[in-house]
Structure formats: structure tokens, C-alpha cells
Amino acid sequence: MFSRILIANRGEIALRIIRACRELGVKTVAVYSKADAKSLHTRLADEAICIGNAMPADSYLNIPAIISAAEITDVEAIHPGYGFLAEDAHFAEICESCRIKFIGPSPESMKLMSNKMAAKDTMKKAGIPVIPGSENIIRSKEEALKESNRIGYPVIIKASAGGGGKGMRVCHNDVSLVNALLTAQSEAEAAFGNSEVYMEKYIASPRHIEFQIIADEKGNVAHLGERDCTIQRRHQKLIEEAPSAVLSDEMRKKMGDMAVAGAKAAKYQGAGTVEFLVSGGEFYFMEMNTRIQVEHPVTELVTGIDLIKEQIRVASGEKLSFHQKDVKITGCAIECRINAEDPEHDFRPCPGKISAINIPGGPGIRVDTHVYAGYTIPPYYDSMIAKLIAYGPDRKQAIATMQRALAEFLIEPIKTTVDFHKKILNDSDFRKADFSTHFIEKFFTQMDDK
Amino acid sequence: MNIKKIRELVEIMNDNDLAEVEIEREGVKIKLAKRAHGVIEHALAGHEYGKKETISSESAPKAAEKKGKEIKAPMVGTFYRAPSPEIDPYVEVGNVIQKGDVLCIVEAMKVMNEVKAELGGRITKICVENGEPVEFEQVMFLVEPV
pTM of the prediction? Predict the structure, then answer.
């Protein structure tokens, strides 16, 4: 086991990692930007080093500063959390060359999975269903027309180096295809510096279901069930739940086995997530995330397995602490991401000082947060200030617990998405688990109609 | 002393913004004291969780100790007073420096970064020991204008 780890992150995930390290007897080093001098993670770590100015490029994305901090504190490993450098293969390589263990997969696995086409290819070869699409990059309008007629409309044109909804265009016929191709290419160039695009069948009204996997360095890989992350706004997740209300046990087993096969094909080590789109009883590989994710708590609550501790253990060379057959999914967990945003003004971020806060408690409630009364939310980073997770013996009770907790959650004076979540939890389609990725869009239209 | 009198006293206190009043009369002594109410910042804001090793014990110099301008570390790394152990330090206390003079090295990831003075003056204090780590904007030198 490591004796000292540096956490290259901030906010709630830095706290989460520090807590796991405390319980494992591992000493912690926190790094922080000038804007985070009063942040909770700097207080709870054994040591804290200021590494730069507020802007992420000067601090949390500043590789020399982070490595330098790691060297002067003599850590054995770095945990990158999520976001920032968590999926930066270059950073993982530098850690390797400095003989600091990067808690995550190898740079090769990261590079393979970040190239969307190569990832699809790897999974296809492993026998995993992928979304029907072009075998190669589309380079001309003739190719585009040929492929679209082969695949069958509707199709979506996507950036190969992309993500987050950029460089994507849906088309329903030959007429709109050429224009879609050209605009997708130029958007991809602008956003990712790479105009390469490919084409896929467009899956209408899908559900986004992802499987948590974890692999040690001795060849053992297991999955810990799925999370349903269909409730999204502009490709940003708002609510996640485990298990998914729509998967049969049969499908769960099939998809879980596929997720493990995919991880093995990618020679994966550490914690990762295999994402699928599910529609009409079919499932298709979408992409793999090579990091621990924001929504990991829902999996922890239904399986009883501490994912961060497991990540640290396998990175230090230990075997997985459980076998696949030991993994049991019990009950239902739902997570609401609480952001400092104003839903009535297009979710614009609302940084500022929190003068009063009442964090929900009681049975079945877990809150992962770094904020406290008197804390000033800095404007430089993402707006998520807390994760509110409710657990119950079934989905209905988890929803009731979540609603009870949302009513207790008071944060003043900044605007947050707490009330917005209350409305979603009250929605009849949500409660029936009858939704697709278009839920939020529809939800807003309904709200406007009222 | 009855309730009416006590109420009157409280009124007098409020009207005159008094925090404490003590009266002795006819063998009876009474003291009234107000506790301050204010916004109570969460205890965490100032709480230290157990022993904490901070790299820079000098990172918040008290106003009384501050003499002159601070020269701060531009990055995290290890502070060296000279480019190598056999060479004399770039500067000593008492030296007069010009803007642009090299004052020290901050080594990060095996790269020896020269730190140059952004202002001129006389060095009154060297705040870090040779070979010690420094964090971003940790005070390394105090410089008095000449």
C-alpha cells in the first residue's frame, strides 16, 4: 500500500479521495490554486501545497507544478480524480517517467479509448455490439452519401476526436447530408483541432446506461452493475440511478459480461466505465471513460463496495478484494447533482459566498460536498457544489427519501438546482421510469406550457 | 429590584448601545450583560484538523515582521541559492540588487529555473533555506528600496 498520495484535484472529489486514504492509513497531499486557499480539501489533507493561480491552466492542469509538488512531498502515487488531468495520457506518461504511480489505467489504454473510432473497433473485435456506422473517416460527400444509404437514415455525423455534443449533426435525408457533413467538420476543427468525422446510425430516444468496471494488475476484471444516466441536459448528467429500472436481469448479465470483455480487450487497469446506448431492447457500445466518475456513489451504495479504496488498492498492486460472484445489487440509489446555477436563467453559474447551509441527513442519505457556511464558491471551476444521494430498498422509496432530503436542503443566498430537482422528482414520467435522453427537453417544454 | 425596573434597565442599555450595566443600590447589586450576535461563520473556516505540516511556515508574514517588498516563488519547486553546490550563492543578505538580477534557482521536474528580480533594492532577509521546498508565491526574499 502507498504511504503517501497526492490528489491532483479539488472540490468534493478531492475530499472523497482524502477520506478513502485516511481509512487506508495513507497520508495525503492536497494541491490547490490561490482561489482555493480556503477550500475544505486543503484542511483535511495531511499537507497542502499552493501550486498556482486560479485559472486551471495555471494550477490544476499545470503538469510541471503538480509533478513538482509531488516530488517535494515525496509521494508514491497521484490520484487524478475526474476531469482536469484524469484522462490526460501525456500526464500519465510523465508520472510513469518520474516513477510516480498514476492511479488509473495505462497511457496506452487511455489513448485507445479516447479515439472514438479506435475504441469502437476494439470493442467490435471483442464481440460487443456497436452502433452501425462507417468503418472509416468520411472524407468526401460521395462517401457520405454512400454510407448514409448503406446504414439507413436517420444518421449522425460525429467528430472522431470529439465529445460533449460538439461536431455532431443529425440528418434524416440526402438533401441535408452534405451541409451536415461540412458544418460538422468545421465545428470539429474549431473545437478539437481535428476535422475528422465518421457516421453512425442515429438511435432515437435512447437510454444512456453505463457499467462500472474495475480491474487489478493481475488480470482480474469485474463489473459492479449499471447506472442509468439518461436524465441529461445538453449532454451533462443531472440525475443518475442504480440499478436501471428498465434492464432485465438477463440484459444486465449480458451487458455486464460485455463490459468486462471490453475492459479486457483494452487491457484495462483500474476503475472505468463502459457506456452503452439502449433502445428497443438492443444495446450498443458508445464509449469508455477511463477514470472514476462523478456518479460513482450510486454504485457504491447498491453494491457496498468502496470504489475509491479499491482503485487505490489495485494501483498499489493488490488483487481485487472481491470476485464477480460476490457482487450483489441491493436496493436502489439515486443521485442528484446540485449545481450553483440558476435554472430560471438558462442555468447560468452563480458563484459567490454561501451564508447559510443546511445539509440533509437521516437514514438513506449520503451527501458528498466540499462547501460549508461562509465558503465562497470561486467562479473559475465547474458549478457542482454537492452530490445528494438517496438510497432505499426500491426505487419508489429511494425517490421518497430523495424528495424528503431535497426539502431539507437549504443553501443561501446563491441559486442552485435544488428546486429544479424537486420538480423532476415530482414528474410522473420520471416516477414511472419512462424517459429517454430527450426527457429534459420535453420537461422544459412542458414547464413553459404550464 | 423588580421586573419593571429590570425592563427599564434593558431599555436604557438598548437605547444607549450599552453592552454591560452594573448597578448597586440599597444593598442590591445587579449586572446585566449582552452577548454579541453576529453571523457565525462555520467553525470549519478557521478550524485546523489536527497537526498539519504546511510547507511554508512563512507564507503569511505578520505585518510587524514585514520589512520591504516580498519576492515570491513563481512556481512550486525546490529553492537553491546557487546553480550548484560548489558555486557561491547568487545573493546574500545586504546585497544590493538590480531589476533583472538572478536571485536564486527554483528547481521543478529537474529543470533549474532562474528567478530574476522584478525590482531593485537591498536584500534584508532570505526566507527559505537552501534545498527547501517552496510553494507557489511563497515569500523567498525581502527587499528594501535603496
Answer: 0.84
Domain ranges of chain B: 3-33, 65-144
The C-alpha of A7 sits at a distance from chain B's nearest C-alpha, in angstroms, of: 15
Q: Say if the ipTM goes beyond 0.90.
A: no
The CA–CA distances, whole Å, from B81 to A62, A290, B96, B99, B140 equal 25, 42, 16, 18, 10
**What pLDDT score does A361 carry?**
97
Q: Pick the catalytic residue from A169, A207, A291, A366.
A: A291
* Interchain contact, B76 vs A48, CB within 8 Å: no
pLDDT surpasses 60 at A430: yes
Residue A364 has pLDDT above 90, yes or no: yes
Alpha-carbon distance B134 to nearest alpha carbon in chain A (angstroms): 8
Cβ of B76 and A68 within 8 Å?
yes
CB-CB under 8 Å, B45 with A64:
no
**Left, alpha or beta for A172 (phi > 0: left; psi -120 to 50: alpha)?**
alpha
Q: Does A340 have pLDDT greater than 50? A: yes
CATH number at residue A162: 3.30.1490.20
Residue A450: predicted pLDDT: 58
In chain A, residues with a C-beta closer than 8 Å to the C-beta of B52 are 43, 46-48
- A38/B52 CB distance under 8 A: no
B41 — pLDDT class (breaks 50, 70, 90): very low
Q: Which of B135, B137, B138, B140 should one mutate to test binding to chain A, selecting the residue with the greatest count of A CBs within 10 A?
A: B135
Nearest to A279 by CA among A206, A171, A335, A209: A206
Residue with the larger pLDDT of the pair B26 and A3? A3
Question: Quick check: B135 and A49 CB within 8 A?
Answer: yes
Residues A60 and A183 occupy one common structural domain = no
Answer yes or no: CATH 2.40.50.100 is held by domain B65-144. yes
Structural domains of chain A, count? 3
**A190 and A211 share one domain:** no
Query: Which residues of B are less than 8 Å from A40 in CB distance?
Result: 44
Helix (H) / strand (E) containing A301: helix A296-303
| Cβ contact B42–A372 (<8 Å) | yes
Q: Examine the domain organization and report whether A96 and A32 are in the same domain.
A: yes
Residue with cell string 473545437: A191
| Residues A327 and A402 placed together within one structural domain of the fold | yes
Nearest-Cα distance to chain B for A289, in Å, is 29
What nine digits make up the cell of B30?
A: 445587579
Q: Are residues A189 and A211 in the same domain?
A: no
Are residues A329 and A437 located together in one domain of the fold? yes
For residues A397 and A294, membership in a common domain is answered with yes
Mean per-residue pLDDT, A326-347: 96
B129 inside 8 A of chain A by CB:
no
Q: Strand A27-33 and strand A4-7: pairing?
A: parallel
Question: Quick check: is A234 catalytic?
Answer: no
| Cα–Cα distance, A107 to A95 (Å, whole number) | 10
* Final residue before a domain boundary, out of A66, A88, A103: A103
B60 touches A: beta carbon within 8 Å: no
CA atoms within 13 A on the CB side of A139: 3
CA-based nearest residue to B60, from A29, A37, A112, A119: A37
Task: Give the pLDDT of residue B12.
Answer: 82
Within a domain: residue A122?
A: no
- Domain extent, residue A39, equals 4-103
The Cα of A20 is separated from the nearest Cα of chain B by a number of Å equal to: 16
Last residue of a domain, one of A147, A166, A201: A201
